Amino acid sequence: MIRVLLVDDQSIIRQGLKALLQLEPDLQIVGDAENGQVAVQQVEALQPDVVLMDVRMPVMDGVAATTAIAQQFPAVKILMLTTFDEDEYVAAALQQGAVGYLLKDTPTEELANAIRTVHKGYTQFAPGILQRLIAKPPEAAAADLPPNLPPSLPPDLPPGFAELTPREREVLKLIAQGASNREIAKALYISEGTVKNHVTNLLGRLELRDRTQAAIFANSVLPLLEP
């Protein structure tokens, strides 16, 4: 069970997230906080595994709270969840210890998968954010990227790779293993129609012609991205 703390200054956002995420059998919402100061206190009291952290909040903002939590409780994973995707916010959050940065319009299924992903020690970004960081000059990108993100990616990596959702990456990995749509649907507990949509989307993002190209791509690239 992954213990999650919700931090947002808007009560309706916290309530909505709790209602949606507590439907996931492996996620437990252990508490919530209306600002960064309360979040730090709640982390100490509740010992969550993952904190969903807003950026702009009164009293203490999300970046300051991330700094405090990362210093005092380094085992806690902090995933930023905000409406702001400006590079300055992204860079500040990552530099202070956040392991991911998502936007509030992220679908619930993808948000739940992102929580699982960061809990395992991986990083997680909203579509386009990682691509922007990678596109920066080396010295600037190095300052922005968290230490557990792979320092370099294959030079011929399609730009759309950074925009793949966590679910699309799972589908891609299973395609690489030779799984059919039916097998993927069974493994991920989704419908075959949903699998087909994911396959279509990832082929388009990666500019690949068919599943065979996707499998070849995945087997050549995904091992390089393992931590």
From TrEMBL:
Q: Which residues carry this modification: 4-aspartylphosphate?
A: D54
InterPro entries, per the entry = CheY-like_superfamily, NreC/VraR/RcsB-like_REC, Sig_transdc_resp-reg_C-effctor, Sig_transdc_resp-reg_receiver, Tscrpt_reg_LuxR_C, WalR-like
Q: Where is the HTH luxR-type domain?
A: 157-222
* Protein keywords: DNA-binding, Phosphoprotein
Which processes are annotated in GO (biological process)?
phosphorelay signal transduction system; regulation of DNA-templated transcription
Give the source's domain of life in one word: Bacteria
Specify the signal sequence span.
Answer: none
Name of protein: Response regulator transcription factor
Q: From which organism does this entry originate?
A: Drouetiella hepatica Uher 2000/2452
Which lineage do the record's taxonomy fields give for this organism? Bacteria, Bacillati, Cyanobacteriota, Cyanophyceae, Oculatellales
